[in-house]
Every structure is written in structure tokens, then in C-alpha cells.
UniProtKB/TrEMBL annotation:
InterPro entries: DUF3243, Uncharacterised_YmfJ, YmfJ/YflH_sf. It comes from Desulfotomaculum nigrificans (strain DSM 14880 / VKM B-2319 / CO-1-SRB). Pfam families: DUF3243. This is DUF3243 domain-containing protein. Gene3D superfamilies: Protein of unknown function DUF3243.
């Protein structure tokens, strides 16, 4: 199974990466900025593999830059929380 096909696995991997960034000393703003750039990359280069990713892409495409930054920050918190359980 590809990672993109499993929403929960994708959140866990992203959460682990957020935790690794924190261990490396990256602050929340830096992590959120990286998530924002990653979100742009995925939105511009990949077709969503599941309904959750499709929803995220539709929201991302509709959002302005500030809203996208907020979405990225919320997604990193959600993923980090998921990886700690």
C-alpha cells in the first residue's frame, strides 16, 4: 500500500517528521513554514490519492496565502498529535 492511499499513515509520518524537526531545534514557525511550502508542492504536483487528500487540495486551492499558512499550521499540529498516540 502506498502512503498516499492511507490518511492515518500519512498523518503519522508527517507527525513523526514534525517531532524530528522539534528534536533538531526547529521552532514552530520554521516547521509551519516548511509545511506551507510542502503543501504548495503537493497541491501543484500530485493528484490526491484519497478523499481526505482531495478535500485538502480543494481547500488549499480555494485559500489565499494567509489561509494556506493557517491550514499548514493546523495540519502540523494535527499530525503531531496523531503521532504521539
Amino acid at each position: 500500500m502506498e502512503i498516499g492511499e492511507n490518511w492515518h499513515k500519512w498523518k503519522e509520518i508527517l507527525g513523526n517528521d514534525v517531532g524530528l524537526g522539534e528534536k533538531m531545534g526547529l521552532d514552530e514557525e520554521t516547521i509551519n513554514n516548511a509545511a506551507y511550502h510542502l503543501g504548495n508542492f503537493f497541491a501543484n504536483n500530485f493528484d490526491p490519492a484519497n478523499k481526505e487528500q482531495r478535500l485538502m487540495k480543494e481547500l488549499w486551492d480555494e485559500a489565499n496565502e494567509d489561509e494556506r499558512k493557517s491550514m499548514a499550521a493546523v495540519m502540523t499540529r494535527l499530525a503531531h498529535k496523531a503521532s504521539n498516540h
